[in-house]
Amino acid sequence: MLARLQQLITLSLLGLAVIWAAQCLRAGKPGWALAGTLLIALGYAVVLALEFVLLRWTHGADPAPRASVRQLVIAWLGEVLTAPRVFCWRQPFRHHRHADHLPPLGRGRRGVLLVHGFVCNRGLWNPWMPRLKELGVPFVAVDLEPVFGSIDHYPAHIEAGLRRLEAATGVPPVIVAHSMGGLAVRAWLRDSKGDARVHRVVTIGTPHHGTWLGRFGRTANTRQMQLDGPWIRALAAQEPPQRYARFSCFYSHCDNIVFPPSTATLPGADNRHIAGWSHVHLAYHEEVFNEVLRWLGPVAETR
Predict the structure, then answer these.
(1) Is 140 left (phi over 0), alpha (psi -120 to 50) or beta?
(2) What phi and psi, each to the nearest 5 degrees, are found at residue 136?
(3) Peptide bond into 267 cis (omega under 30)
(4) What secondary structure letter does DSSP report for 172?
């Protein structure tokens, strides 16, 4: 569903830009043709800029270091370059480019379960999947559906992916989750009490305590991500405190979606601050990938 929606949006914007440019050129207005085309193609950059302004404005007394203007500008540029590759190419058109990797000789080899976040699909992980396959790491990348449904619907998809890995490897995997995907993993742990079935959970920009932007949510899952909202509090109340010790939580003071920054951390977890990286871009930071390799054991030595 999400791939078709993003295909429609991408092709519609492309068509609108072509029509606008053609009409303006026919009317002898090349300047308007260029301006309108740039606005259609790069209008999202303005929205991203507003997000960065808001994250700086709402930082308050958050214990994470306050980002400098220079760091915010560089992070904004990183997100401007990353977003179209993810939302206009990998997810709508290339989400099945890389199949799940469950090699016949993967028994006893620790695998990875990849869990995406809000308005994403498995295409988010396209840069990860060939690298894991090259290392011989078994992996499964799930799609969370319905796209705008409750987070409480997603544990079933995580359970299905986990069972496939368990059947292929026989050992508990490392779960890697971006953004809302980390909350879906926590909901799965809540429902399944499956702590022993997971070796490590690595979250990337997950709104563990919600996000300031959640106040604008209109879908079931975005409302659940309100800052310190009722769903977030109920989830935490049902978790044993020792569970967080198996989490590595990556967060950034330049995360334009999950802020204030420390909302992406958990008490007792290995919380890792990465300076100067934005929300989607953070999923591709080398330190995150290397942390996953570290928890895979001997595979890290073959890299």
Answers:
(1) beta
(2) 80, 20
(3) no
(4) P
Contact 274, 250 (CB under 8 A): yes
Beta strands in the chain (DSSP E): 112-115, 139-141, 174-178, 200-204, 247-251, 270-273
**Torsional sign, CA 165, 168, 172, 173:** negative
pLDDT of residue 299 exceeding 70 = no
**CA of 8: how far to CAs of 19, 91, 277, in Å?**
16, 12, 29
| pLDDT score of 303 | 36
Domains of the chain are: 112-302 (3.40.50.1820)
- Rounded Cα gap, residues 46 and 241, in angstroms: 41
Residue type for 251, please?
A: Y
DSSP secondary structure code for residue 98 in this structure: S
Write out pLDDT tens, residues 204-246: 999 999 999 999 999 999 999 999 999 999 999 999 989 999 9
Q: Name the helix (H) or strand (E) containing 32.
A: helix 30-57
pTM: 0.95
Residues of the chain with pLDDT > 90, as a percent, come to 96
- Which tokens go with 59? 């930082």
